[in-house]
Amino acid sequence: MHSDTLVMRAKEGDQSAQGKLMQLWYKRIYNFGYKFFMDHDLAMEVSQKTFISMCKNLPGLQDNARFKSWLYKIAVNYCREELRKKKGDRSLSFDVVWNRDAEESPKWEAGGQRIDNPESQLHKTELADILQQALSELNAEQREVVIMKEYEGLKFREIAEVLNISENTAKSRMYYGLDGLRKILDRKNINKDTIGYEL
Amino acid sequence: MSYKPNENDLMAYLYGELEGSEKEAMEKYLFEHPDARRELERLQHMRSILSEVKDKEVIAPPIFVGESKQRFLWNAPYLKTIVSIAASLLLIILAGRLSGMRIQYHSSELRISFGGDKDVKEIPVQSVQPSVASLSAEQVQSMINASLDKNNLAMQSSWKETQHQLDASITENLAQNSKKIDKLVRDASTASQDQIREFVSGMQTENLQLVKNYFKLSADEQKQYIESLLVDFSKYLQQQRNDDLQIVQTRLNSLEKNTDVFKQETEQILSSIITTVGTNNSIGTTN
Question: Distance from A13 to chain B by nearest Cα, in Å?
Fold first, then answer.
């Protein structure tokens, strides 16, 4: 996805290289934050803080090959910080109270691309929401690992490096994370049979 | 040798991170153990469900990081410090130049002066010339002895003089004090018997007068007190007598009233008896 030379140039203060790195990684970090919080604003906040921190601290990166895990480490730290703030703040966002998406358009219109079967797309969108909800019900440690492994495609070694834990601990959290998700989905009556052939 | 994979191995296999002999051992184990195979299938199914959550599209906003990390020499923080120190020194030198300040250090002496040069009178420093070591030990000893003798003589003479002065002052004081005591004794002895008698009789008359006055005063006061007491007592008796008279009067009045009432009642009873007796007689006569 990125070359070492891009990281090297960015480290030397090349702003265009920094901008390119950000263009390359912004979607990944945003989606990590979104899946972690299930909240667009918080995901944007975390992403922006992560890239500001990246630009400032890039000269301190020792090994260019570890850029990916280094960037996720920054993102995870900001996610944890926001989570602490969120726990401290008991107020409810207005967007949560007033679901604009639900009022303005049906779920199947939310996706940008045109699809062959709107009913199937609606089901898939609803399922995605339920899965996202189930993810947010996991504890933060398991959630971090599940998102990094399942959606960001990091190796267990990289996850262990990001979270500063052992590889076995990362695998264990993944196992119990998947198990926990299965139980949550069972509770919501989402299983092989109910999803059916569409998967 | 029995191979039993744990949950970590299962995760590594699920995500394709198991390699070589470990992978083979796992595949063999899964082939032989349908329970483990079912568990793996459950996990794979879970993964397939999770894959339904797609990435959201987002456009990276422009992020401006304030300062460039490239530092030039004139932006170095230590250079600013050095320049500020140099500027301060330059200011101090300029102020010193304008005020004509002069600082001199010469032979253990620091001079700070403002304005033009002035002739400063040199204060001659008395240098102690070291004596030439040409004297012998005997000469030095004799010089010390002579100086000691001289000192001794001077001290003895001063002691004698002080002794004389002390003796003289003591005798003078003694003489003065004895004179004073003699005078007092003489005055006391010259006081005659008549004077004493006069003094005693004067005292007696004074005492007599004092006692008389006291008794007179106290007798008057007692008389006044007794008189007022008697007056008060007589007033009290008079008041008591009046009260008693009033009580007797009211009782007499009430007795008189009672008597009148009794008298009227008796008259009524008598008249009624008379009338009844009269009527009975008349009835008897008619019968």
Answer: 6
